[in-house]
Structures are given as C-alpha cells and as structure tokens.
Predict the 3D structure of the following.
Amino acid sequence: MAGTDRTQASLSGGPAIVLVRAQLGENIGVAARAMLNFGLTDLRLVRPKAGWPNVKALNAASGADEVLARVRIFDRVEEAVADLRYLFAATARDRDMVKPVVSAHGAAQFMRATDGAGSDCGVLFGPERTGLTNEEVALAERVIMIPLNPAFASLNLAQAVILVAYEWFTVADDAPHERLRQKGTRAATKDELFNFFGHLETALDGAGFFPTETMRPHMVLNLRNLFARAELTEQEVQTLHGVIERLSRARPPEADSDTG
Amino acid sequence: MAGTDRTQASLSGGPAIVLVRAQLGENIGVAARAMLNFGLTDLRLVRPKAGWPNVKALNAASGADEVLARVRIFDRVEEAVADLRYLFAATARDRDMVKPVVSAHGAAQFMRATDGAGSDCGVLFGPERTGLTNEEVALAERVIMIPLNPAFASLNLAQAVILVAYEWFTVADDAPHERLRQKGTRAATKDELFNFFGHLETALDGAGFFPTETMRPHMVLNLRNLFARAELTEQEVQTLHGVIERLSRARPPEADSDTG
C-alpha cells in the first residue's frame, strides 16, 4: 500500500492511543506499527500485563521504533490521560451508561475538528480479554463502536487501533477518491479519438464486418462507447491504430477467385 | 468493539479476497478473521507459499472457521478470478500503468453499487514482500491505494485486508457514487475477458504486430490494461471477438506460393 502526500498537520503525532493493561506484546507492537502507518506517534500504556520493555512488541512493530521510543507508561488511566481534553473509549460490550456512541469515522471527524492536530484527544482501548472497566469507560465523554458482523464480533486489539488510526488519517483527505493515473503520458484529445474511430470503422467496412447497413449505426455506437469509456491515452490510441493497421494490412485484394 | 445490526445483504459473502502467493500462514489467518469481522467469507488463495492447509493460519484465525473451511486454492490468478466481473488490485508501489486509482472507501462504494452483495467483485493482494506483479495488476480494472504516512508506508498484508473489509461493511449505508450503466446486458466475466485477450494476442502474433519478442510483453500489457479499463460488457466482448475475427479472417494462409 503506497502513501500519498499528506499535510504535515496529520503527522504531528495526532491523538493519543492509550492501551490499558494490554496482555500481549505482539498486540502492542502491531498497534504501534498501525499507528505510525497513519501518522500517530503518541502511544501510552497503562500497566501493560505484557511487561515493558517487551521484545515481542519490538519485533512486531516492524520498524515503528519512533513510536515505541516515545512510549509512556502509567499506573492509572487517570494519569495517562491527564493532559488530554477529549477522551473516547473503544468498547466491545454494551454498557449500562448514558453516553454518546460514535463510529470510528465520527470520532475522527470530531478529533479533526478540535485543534486540527488531535493532540488534545485520546482513545482508550481495554485489555484483549475483558475490555475496559465501567469506571474506565466513565472517564471518557464518548464511546467508539465499530460496526461488526454480529455473528463474529470479536475484533483484535491491534485491528481496533488500526481502524481508529486509519479513520483519523483519511478523514483529512479532501482529495477526490478516484483519478486517472497517467505517467509520462496524456489523455488523448477527442480529435485523436475520433480519428481512431474513423480508422476502425473504415477497416471494418473493408472487412465486411457489418452484416447489414441497417445494423451499422447501432454497432458503430457500441464500439465508440466502449473505447470512449476506456479514457485512452494518446499512446494507446497510437497502439490501437497499429492493431487495426496490422490486422487488416495482410488482407488480399478484393477477389482473387479467378485462380480456381 | 461491539457489533451493530446490519442488513443481511452485507453478510452474504461479499467480495472475494484473493491472496496471491501469501508467505505467512499467520497473515492468512488474521486476514480470515478480519474478513469475517466484516461479513466477508469468500477467501481465495493463489499458490500460498505458506502451504495449505496451514496450522498457523488456523490458529491465527481465532475462530473464523467458516472462512477457512470455504477457502479455495488456485494455481493462477486468472483461474482464481475467472467468475468475477469487477477486479481491484491492492498495490503498494507506483506502477507505470494507466489505471484508475481508488481509495478503500471508493472501492467499497463501487462494489456496493454493482449488485449490492459484492459477489461479482474481488480484490487482489500480493505477497508480503514483493506485492503483485505488473501482469497481475494488469488483470484488474482499478488499483486500490490506501493513503499512508509517507515516512512509514509499509502496511501489513492482513491490515490491508481489514481496511478493505471494514470499508466494505461500513459503506453499506452510503449512497452509491458510481454505477456502471448496463441496459439489458451484463459485465463480462474475467474468463470471457481473458479469452478475448488470448484471441487478440494470437491474432496479433499471426499478423506480425509485435516488432520484436522483447517488446511483446510490454505491448501486451498495455493492450490488456486499456481493455480492462473499459469494463466491457459480455456483448462488447462478443463484438470485439467479431472485430478481430473479421479483420484477420481475410488474411491469406501463411504461404500459398506453391500455386506458382
């Protein structure tokens, strides 16, 4: 997966990811890697059960050293989030609480809307098996819930982190979602395209492609449509000219049945 | 993370995830789990380097047995995608190709806009280290690129899969942004498309289209790319067969100089 250019703002560290009593070093490492993939660098651990420093975490981070080097360890969630202004709790179970529930996308929009850098925001993630306690969830103003297949709703900790990080990163993207990639080439002009149409249709006439004159207009339209849809480059139009040229060049003169 | 209710349509199997020459069993397992989290069940493996069946994959799947039980193994990408109509390639490197690039979100919107169940769509993912070959990317109409931190843009295979699956699941409520117009016709299957490629290339070989054997692969790739991009209907593929047939039919037998 390739990176596209991104504003510096999204790489300033972003919201804090707070892993509470994480059980597996691997999950911490994969979460760190996922964070850095999407420009997040502020990782905080509350009493990691996996122990810290943790070799499995280092290995699983696959080079996200920048994140692991800055990790801060805390004894209590309250300390870990003390400097933040907006706190979200990622939780799996329904809680008997009255609290706004947002999607990861909604959370990202909210976090972008504060100071733009997200540095005053944080997201709490609980231990793999049990999740956050009610007391910990109560520290957050909002709950993040990710819609899941109800028949298989156990999301890995690091995967939950990557979805939050991904939404944070992509929600800033105002670029169009689809564009034609053209390396060292340019889209064909309509003139070039129409010349190709002419070439193709003349060749097909010569080859007796159209069964009847009545059917010709409809068939021509279909051919033009399909090639128009391809949004051809200049080079590709040249190639197609060559294809027509070559395929039809070898054709014998109109009738040489007199050799029989 | 809790599941919310979702329409049955989103749990019908969804788009196919095609892992090409995956190297690590763990990644296959985590990908399967991620798929099922978001209602995808159609996993296809092309020559898994990890070997199959694979104990590490089973362990890493954490109960996503439904997906692993249905895995299908193929020898070539062409076979793995033969029944699909819309194919995406997830790729990390910039390719010297002219092909629309979409985000995971854009891809999900597109896949939802076909038959709603996504069962005629698929996404190719390459091996962990090397990614897809250019020839494999050329089989797809669109490239999926996930915006990443340019300073740390190596995304784990299973994480790439989960982002595609997550977007597929969560985009369900969005209005479709793109719909291929198909009046009384249907998109060609990949099998039909590949047959056309074969026909075209054989005809071009016969006509001496390729100046040298060295230039052939690149020229073939360009031709395949432009036709893949056109998202041909079945009817259009038939028409193009007719075009090739007609243009090359009239060519005289290789050598009939013996009549002299």
